[in-house]
């Protein structure tokens, strides 16, 4: 169960960041007080809202019965008692040592600066070369899923244009992004991997929320507003068949409306996003 939950949680976060990579500039759309988590569309929008708030605990509680939530806590506590892999522990401690230094921002930027210079030089050519290929892989020629939706090719074109116009890897933007990541890492107050092993379930979720917030702030330094994208979510064409449902979800990215069909499943009385329909 723990593995399934982690996989689904990672899917949600990954989906949000993939959308974020397209950029967004629309104001918030979601009012959590109006959402019904007992419906597939309400459950989906509530998930987007809790991710925008970096509230991982609510995101999990809204997807599990009280009994399953208690089981999850027990499984986490059992896993925390298992020793961490020595190589992972060493790598984690090395990362902590670097990020907790007074000059961490400068060190990290100096490490990545040579690669950034190369990437910036070739980015326009790479983007133009990849644009058509990406559009084809996404089915760019297909009809839009709903009247409000732009085609995938239009969304890809908008993404490429925005990236080229905004120079997201400009030095000051990268330095500000690194500063946000360092600030987040230092704010966790971890001195070693052993500190991580001592966290209880609620502390781990709170720390996960802090990391998610820091990552979103780092993306925002490049002009990418993850929360704006998540809060722009709209849902239509909800079709329910027993304990399964489909819906069309849309997000505002670069002034375009990106849409995708989402599969939902009812488990233990809760509607959840189903990555494997």
Question: Can you describe this structure in just a few lines?
Answer:
With 277 residues, the protein is an alpha+beta fold. The protein has helices at 2-20, 40-52, 56-61, 66-80, 86-99, 104-137, 152-166, 171-187, 193-197, 201-220, 226-231; strands at residues 234-241, 244-253, 256-267, 270-273.
Keywords summarizing the entry:
signal, flat, 277 residues, disordered N terminus, alpha+beta
Q: If you compute it from the alpha carbons, what radius of gyration comes out, rounded to the nearest whole angstrom?
A: 20 Å
Listing every helix as H and every strand as E from the N terminus to the C terminus, the arrangement reads HHHHHHHHHHHEEEE
Average of per-residue pLDDT values: 85
Distance between the termini: 17 Å
Helical proportion? 55-70%
* SS-based class: alpha+beta
Q: What is the total tally of β strands?
A: 4
The description of the largest β-sheet is: 4 strands, antiparallel
Approximately what portion of the residues adopt beta-strand conformation? 5-15%
Query: How many separate domains make up the residues?
Result: 1
Number of helices: 11
Strand order of the largest sheet: 1-2-3-4
Structure characterization notes:
Residues 1-20 form the signal peptide. Keywords: Signal. α6 runs antiparallel to α7, α6 packs across α8 and α8 (171-187) runs antiparallel to α10 (201-220). The chain is flat and about 55 Å long. The protein contains 11 helices and 4 strands. It is 59% helix and 12% strand. The protein has 277 residues and is α+β, with helices and mostly antiparallel strands. The chain has one domain. The chain has a 4-stranded antiparallel sheet, with helices on both faces.
């Amino acid at each position: 169960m723990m593995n399934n939950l982690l996989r689904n949680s990672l899917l949600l976060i990954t989906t949000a960041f993939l959308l974020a990579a397209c950029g967004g500039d629309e104001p918030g759309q979601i009012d959590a007080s109006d959402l019904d988590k007992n419906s597939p569309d309400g459950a989906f929008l509530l998930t987007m809202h809790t991710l925008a708030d970096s509230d991982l605990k609510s995101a999990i509680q809204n997807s599990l019965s009280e009994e399953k939530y208690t089981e999850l806590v027990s499984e986490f506590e059992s896993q925390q008692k298992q020793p961490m892999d020595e190589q992972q522990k060493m790598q984690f401690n090395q990362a902590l040592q670097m990020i907790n230094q007074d000059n961490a921002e400068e060190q990290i930027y100096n490490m990545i600066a040579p690669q950034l210079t190369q990437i910036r030089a070739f980015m326009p050519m790479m983007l133009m070369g990849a644009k058509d290929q990406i559009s084809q892989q996404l089915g760019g020629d297909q009809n839009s899923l709903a009247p409000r939706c732009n085609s995938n090719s239009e969304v890809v074109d908008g993404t490429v244009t925005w990236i080229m116009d905004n120079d997201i890897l400009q030095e000051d933007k990268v330095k500000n992004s690194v500063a946000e990541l360092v600030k987040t890492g230092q704010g966790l107050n971890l001195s070693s991997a052993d500190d991580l092993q001592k966290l209880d379930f609620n502390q781990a979720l709170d720390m996960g929320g802090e990391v998610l917030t820091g990552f979103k702030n780092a993306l925002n330094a490049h002009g990418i507003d993850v929360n704006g994208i998540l809060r722009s979510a709209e849902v239509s064409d909800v079709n329910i068949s027993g304990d399964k449902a489909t819906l069309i979800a849309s997000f505002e990215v670069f002034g375009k409306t990106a849409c995708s069909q989402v599969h939902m499943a009812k488990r233990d009385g809760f509607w959840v996003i189903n990555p494997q329909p």
